Each structure stands twice: as C-alpha cells, then as structure tokens.
C-alpha cells in the first residue's frame, strides 16, 4: 500500500459540485462518484472530515444581495449544507463506511450536535465525519467553517476539491490564457485577491500554519494529493 502523506485531513467540497452538470439540486451519480473516491481514501487508512457547501440548493449571500435579510439567508444556507451532508452520508454508508453528520445547529432527529471531542473520537474510530451547518453563525462562509473545523480537529491539511485543477491568476473556464500557480504563500493569496477561500479562512490557516491544497475533484487528484504527488496548488506559510 502506498504511503500516505497525511494521516488526517479536512476535505472541503462545494455544494455546486454535487449538482453535476446541472445548476441546482443533488445529482445522485455525481454524489456516488465523489463518495467512491472518498471511500477509497478511507480504505487506505486516512482519517477524513468533510465540510460541504450548500450552493447547489441555496446561496445565502446571493439571496441577501437581492434584499433578503442576511442572517435569515445564511441560516437557510446552513440548512442546505445539512441536506447535502445527509445525501453524502447515505452514499458513503452504502460503500460500507460508517459516517457521522455533526451539525453546528441542533437537529437531533437527523444528526448529532457538533462537539469537538465527539468528532475527534469518531475520526479515531475510523468513521468519516461530515461537519454540517457551517459554524452555526450567520456572516461566516463554509470556507471559514472548513478552516475552523480543520483547526479544531487537528487536521494536517485542508483540501479544497473543486471543478478546476488548482488556483489560477484568472478564471480558467472563460480565459484560455489563465496560468495556474503550483505554490502560493498565504500572503500572496491575500495580496493578489485570489479566490482560493475567503480571507477569514486564509487568515485562520495562516495563523495556525495549516496548508491548503486545491485540486480537481473529478480527476482523482484528491487521492494523488494524499499520496504526495505534485498536482494542484499548495498554499502554505511561504
């Protein structure tokens, strides 16, 4: 078996990735594909925490910009992340991997409350932990939630799995001349205003010296990153 570069990581998935080719909702085939890769990593002995966005169901910030109260919109977005978490949990357990959804907002009929020590214990027992409902507070993104949970759970790296291969100087979807960075410092990300994660998340990772690895979710790159292969972009202390 190949040697793992990390023992415990937090993987941040965008909600939009779960929609597949559509712009809204949950595509079962896409979720199944994502879960297959996560299950394979768990089989290799990797301890995995997940944070999943909710943009495929509801985007709080966008709705706030259209006149909805920001706090109400953000709480709706948090509930969307719980829906995604339960969908991913269902697929992972079909692969035979015990999975626990821990929510920052109490929903005892659906999932456990997020308690750091309980989450750590689940990870130690080989269970995949999905941290849902963001931080439980409005005005904070799921990027910030991912960074926060990664610090709390003593993860060695934050892996942001996206639809592109890494961090580019401009949008590679609409710009053929976009250039991908192989390595960036946290300060460079903030200075260049690169959309890796929001500035709060970047600052939290910088203060705690936890690297962020950005890679493609759909090319098997998450596995390659875990095995130490040179793919994607790494954001580190510099």
Automatic annotation (TrEMBL):
It is found in: Cytoplasm. GO terms for molecular function: ATP binding; UMP kinase activity. Its EC number is 2.7.4.22. GO terms for biological process: 'de novo' CTP biosynthetic process; UDP biosynthetic process. Keywords: ATP-binding, Cytoplasm, Kinase, Nucleotide-binding, Pyrimidine biosynthesis, Transferase. ATP binds at residues 12-15, 55, 59, 162, 168, 171. Residues 7-216 form the Aspartate/glutamate/uridylate kinase domain. InterPro entries: AceGlu_kinase-like_sf, Asp/Glu/Uridylate_kinase, Uridylate_kinase, Uridylate_kinase_bac. Catalyzes the reversible phosphorylation of UMP to UDP. HAMAP family: PyrH_B. Belongs to the UMP kinase family. This is Uridylate kinase. It comes from Halodesulfovibrio aestuarii.
């Amino acid at each position: 078996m190949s040697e793992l570069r990390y023992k415990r990581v937090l993987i941040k998935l965008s909600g939009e990735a779960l929609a597949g080719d559509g712009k809204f909702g949950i595509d079962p085939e896409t979720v199944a594909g994502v879960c297959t890769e996560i299950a394979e990593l768990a089989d290799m002995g990797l301890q995995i925490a997940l944070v999943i966005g909710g943009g495929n169901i509801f985007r709080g910030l966008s709705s706030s910009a259209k006149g909805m109260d920001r706090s109400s919109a953000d709480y709706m977005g948090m509930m969307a992340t719980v829906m995604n978490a339960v969908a991913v949990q269902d697929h992972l357990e079909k692969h035979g991997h015990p999975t626990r959804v821990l929510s920052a907002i109490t929903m005892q009929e659906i999932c456990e409350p997020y308690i750091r020590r309980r989450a750590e214990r689940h990870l130690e027992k080989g269970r995949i932990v999905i941290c849902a409902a963001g931080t439980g507070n409005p005005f904070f993104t799921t990027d910030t939630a991912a960074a926060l949970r990664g610090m709390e759970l003593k993860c060695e790296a934050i892996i942001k799995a996206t639809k592109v291969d890494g961090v580019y100087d401009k949008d590679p979807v609409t710009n053929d001349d976009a250039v991908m960075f192989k390595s960036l410092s946290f300060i460079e990300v903030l200075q260049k205003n690169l959309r890796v994660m929001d500035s709060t998340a970047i600052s939290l990772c910088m203060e705690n010296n936890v690297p962020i690895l950005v890679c493609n979710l759909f090319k098997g790159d998450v596995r390659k990153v875990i095995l130490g292969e040179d793919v994607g972009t790494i954001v580190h202390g510099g």
